[in-house]
Specification:
CATH topology: Alpha-Beta Plaits
Shape: globular
Order of helices and strands: HEHEEHHE
Number of domains: 1
Strand order of the largest sheet: 2-3-1-4
CATH class: Alpha Beta
Structural class: alpha+beta
């Protein structure tokens, strides 16, 4: 019996789904948990459009690093003020990696090192949240 491409794709997706469910984490095909790297930056010159734009441009260069699956760069959203919301940062980046090893390789990559060397003088504070993605309930 010949298997169609659609059937083959469905079988592959089912295999990835099974690996994901068995680990408790959103997993890559290798079965490792995916990692989200969320970084918040506070500028030395808060409110400086030139410094903000320079940092944003620097962050966007990180998309060229092969281990980066997705890169999102943003500014605080103008949502309602609540006690649980901290919008005191100036710029944020959100990066998805296939696994922790890829995140470590990203940290050591020449493009990341060049970004830090170029943009570090702009910020007064950096806060990082790394998260292993759990599977949906």
């Amino acid at each position: 019996m010949k298997t169609s491409r659609r059937e083959l794709a469905a079988m592959m997706a089912a295999g990835v789904g099974a690996a994901t469910l068995s680990s408790g984490h959103a997993a890559t095909p290798q079965g490792q948990p995916m990692l989200v790297h969320h970084v918040f930056f506070w500028l030395k010159q808060a409110g400086s459009p030139a410094d903000r734009d320079r940092l944003v441009a620097g962050l966007r260069t990180l998309a060229a690093i092969p281990m980066v699956r997705q890169l999102h760069v943003g500014l605080p959203a103008p949502t309602e003020q609540r006690d649980v919301i901290d919008n005191s940062y100036d710029v944020s980046e959100l990066i998805y990696f296939d696994n922790i090893a890829d995140q470590k390789a990203y940290q050591d990559h020449p493009i990341h090192r060049a970004f830090v060397a170029s943009c570090e003088p702009l910020w007064r504070k950096v806060l990082v949240y790394d998260m292993a993605i759990l599977t949906p309930a």
